[in-house]
Description:
This protein is an alpha+beta fold. It has helices spanning about 5-15, 30-45, 95-110, 130, 140-155; strands spanning about 50-55, 65-75, 75-80, 95, 110-120.
Amino acid sequence: MADHIPAETSSALAAILTPLALDNPRDGDCITVAGQVTARLRERGLDADTVTIAGWCDRSEKILAFFHHVTLHRGMVLDGTARQFDPSLPTAWVLALPAYLGEIADATGIDHATVFSSTAAPARKSDPARAQHPTQTRHDRRATTQVADARHIRS
């Protein structure tokens, strides 16, 4: 997939994202904002999913740095809370997924980022491809166990 996004597509998505994006987001704001952005896109009849981005400290994906929620629409990420990681990031950030994963990794100083999970909407009867190929996820069970273990350690 090319990282290039037609300017008109990016502008249309940014127009939806901008009113919901936060100038000074805090940890956890991404859950609310990503859900709102996904809902707005779906209200307009567009396919959109809220996805969880996993930030990994190591190439083997054993040490989790963070989870971050964003909206994914046809390979494009809409992120209205990235500034919680780095205030120089855009307030309303629209970028192709491969470029986004690289840039969020650079901005946070981690090894790399992946799409961890998706809250994909149920497939519509008119969309059999979506039913057969939902948003791909990686390492759900292993990372979920690690997060559960980390919560146990903190409490």
